[in-house]
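Researcher: Re-running this chain for the archive, since the previous output was lost when a drive failed. Same request as before.
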Amino acid sequence: MADVFGSITDEALNRICGFTQVRAPFLFNYVAPSIVDGVEIWLTCYDVPDSPLGNVPKYTRLSTFPVPGIPVALPYCVQIFDANIDFHPSDQITLPDELSPPLKDQAFGLRVQCQFGVACIPDDVAKLVADSRFNNPNQDERQPLVVPAKSLLCFVLTGFATGRLVVGAAPGTPGPVEQIRVEVDGVEIVDITPRGLENAVECYLIAVLKGYVLPTLVLGLQSLVIKSLGFAATIQLTAGLPHNPAIEENELRVWLDVKVT
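Model: Regenerated structure tokens:
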């Protein structure tokens, strides 16, 4: 029998996401700033209001994007303005046919709308780079020039993903330390043409998710040691259940055993 049971609905998580977007905008707005006359300019596709909490940053800083074949780097932004999660059985989002709806047992769906903006290389900058490369054959060895953009070319993308939670032992640890990981089963970007370009973008996103983003979301349960009133408690998933954590009836559910030491 579990010591602790907890659950949260997908509807509640979506409300929390909207609440967080207002108070912590840097979690939803990512910017690689432009540099004009030595001053950084944080260009975005739409204005981001200040957080009501006060000294909370608007943006998370990204590195500028290097352009293959020409020694310049482009400012850009990625702004998430709508995100919704859906737990099995689906009732929050409608998955595209490419992800074989409806949601499978113990699966979740995700719908994200993003505003992307990228700087265009002005003719005078392209000519400056060309003249510099002609006069200096070793131009490629130098740091790329950040395009001094004052505006961005913006477009909206809608993406969907499906996935599940997986429990396993932490690699490289001396004992059976449990980890909860997120695994992505499929990604679909809507209305990118031609189809080959869409497939390439989706392949890249899956690689980024599996190789960089998702490993940072791993939760090691035995590392969660609660200290209060002079004692400590170690948390473990309750064993012997068909699914724990479970995604069912539009909820994320978890059963925990707590050992006081």
